[in-house]
Amino acid sequence: MKRRTLPVAVALATSAALLLTACGGGDDKSDANDKIAGADQATEKPTKSAEPSGAPASDKPDGVDVSLPKDMNLVFDWERPGDENEAAAMDDAANFVRAIYRGVDKRTTNDAALVTYSTGDGLKYGKTQIDVRLEGGWTATGTRRHYQATTRSSSNGNSVEVAFCVDSTKFYSKEVKTGKVLKGAPSITDFDYFKIIMVKLPTGEDLWQASKVYVEAKAAKCQ
Question: pTM (2 decimals)?
Answer without folding.
Answer: 0.77
